[in-house]
Amino acid sequence: MTATDTDPEAGARLAPIAERAAAPAQLPHVTAGDLAWRPATRDDARALLDLRNTIADVDREPYRETLEEILEMFDAPWRRYDTDSLLGFDADGVLRAYGLVDSMPGDTRTVRAFLFGGVHPERRGEGIGRELFAWQVARGRQVLAASGKDVPARLAVFAEDDGPVEKNRLYERFGFGAHRFYSELMRDLRDLDAAPVPDVALEGSLRLVPFAAEYDEPTRLAHNDAFRDHWGSEPQTPEQWKNGRSAFAPAWSFVVVDDAPDVEALLASPDTDAETAAALRAGEPLVVGYQLASRFEEDWAVRGFTFGYTDILGVRRAYRGRKVAVAALAAGMRALAADGIEFAALDVDTANPTGADGLYASLGYTKTHGSRMYSVEL
């Protein structure tokens, strides 16, 4: 973690983002492999899905994607595929390589550009990946510079711990370092008599309820508060929050609400953000914790078992230490078991500041897989 991650005044000492990003005036051309290159469109979703899943299969990645997930990428209103994507087709019109640059409109503390891409296994070793990644890095720097946000900045790419070493070497040659590590954890749900899920009694005016549409926006506000002190997390706008829900499983998701919050104390607290303050004044429900889950059925055959995945688990900072996270997660685990799902799964940042590793271990979660984030910090 750098000084700019913890020091709120550090941003004032940074050079302007346009200077730090060192964006090139022109993007490099990709000539290797003799492919025809153009930006992606929504009509390319099926071809992109096939390529991404082919790469995942050969590289033995533990997940697969659906057409709905790819279409959601194109439907996000903030994404600019006309400028931030590149597809390479062979002479027969078959998609052989792709590169995407993704950025998020809600970034306020650190502006980020994420790089996603790959080359069909049959076309590796021709230099396509190296030239395509050079294009992504250059475009990512342009995106950061154009943001106008004079805060710390990051170019980032993700990799599986047991993925092809050639990819990691490519990232390192471009100056990317492995700066963050993540663990996939799973909990066996097949015999809750032998390994019971704890019963958690919430105190006072706290109440555990199934997720419902009325709690959607209050949960977004809770999430932005809960993850404000997490490295690499940025506030989510309403558009970001609602995007990417094709696998969302409301029946496995739960929130904790405070039916009688101390509104005056919360409004007086400097930690209460403006959106939460407005919701409190309007008498909106106050979600203080949440566990939102997804159902990735296409992954079940790859893994050899069924599982439900906790996308996000969080607790407002003012409500930590009151067993809110345990109550929400335990409710999700019970819902999974009731539906005959064999395992509960989630991912955790190994440097999570809230001691999440200890919480998950106490509930029977163990590590099954790992991944990392390579980045250039600007």
Automatic annotation (TrEMBL):
Ranges where the N-acetyltransferase domain occurs: 35-191, 206-378
InterPro entries per record: Acyl_CoA_acyltransferase, GNAT_dom, YpeA/RimI_acetyltransf
Gene3D superfamilies given in the database record: 3.40.630.30
Example GO molecular function: acyltransferase activity, transferring groups other than amino-acyl groups
UniProt xrefs under Pfam families: Acetyltransf_1
Transferase listed as a keyword: yes
Claim: Membrane is one of the keywords in the record: no
Entry keyword set: Acyltransferase, Transferase
PROSITE patterns from the UniProt entry: GNAT (PS51186)
PANTHER family reported for this sequence: ACETYLTRANSFERASE, N-ACETYLTRANSFERASE DOMAIN-CONTAINING PROTEIN
Name this polypeptide is given: GCN5-related N-acetyltransferase
Organism name: Isoptericola variabilis (strain 225)
